[in-house]
Amino acid sequence: MKNTTILFLWILPLVVTLGCSSDDGAEPNPDTNPNPNKTTTYTADVKTIIDTHCIECHTIPLAQGAIFPMRNYAETINGLDRDLVLRITSPNISNIMPPSGRLPQETIDIILDWVADGELEE
After folding, report:
1. CB–CB of 45/110 below 8 Å?
2. Of 18-22, 54-58, 68-72, 77-81, which range is least confident?
3. Which of 2, 8, 41, 79 is most buried, by the most CB atoms less than 10 A from its CB?
């Protein structure tokens, strides 16, 4: 009986951990390169996306609850460190960025490609 209890105490945390996995197939894999035939950079490819879809709130002064600016390369890198990729790819409508709605997949792929290419500035 004691061995069964010990075994149970070892298996229970494993089962709970696996059962709580958030792997619903929606999380991005930054090692995946959507466009392996192109080197994507902030200046050439990502800045336009940020300026079009993000800068309205992610500027100084911050607006609409934004918690950090994204006015330039360094600030956008800070955004990556604060789960930018997870927010733009989130399947959860209450967690998605921009708040107006999910970006087109082609646009998301440019950002994912930039991350996969090493987050180059130029």
Report:
1. yes
2. 18-22
3. 79
Q: Which tokens go with 88?
A: 């733009």
pLDDT at 25 over 60: no
d(CA 74, CA 27): 24
For residue 51, the tally of other CB atoms under 10 A from its CB is 12
Integer Cα distance of 25 and 59 in angstroms: 32
Specify which residues 120 forms β-bridges with. Answer: 41
Residues 6+ apart with CB under 8 A from 26: 89, 90, 91
Please say if the pLDDT value at position 44 is more than 80.
Answer: yes
In whole angstroms, give the CA distance from residue 44 to residue 19.
Answer: 42
Distance, in Å, from the CA atom of 97 to the CA atom of 87, rounded to the nearest integer, reads: 5
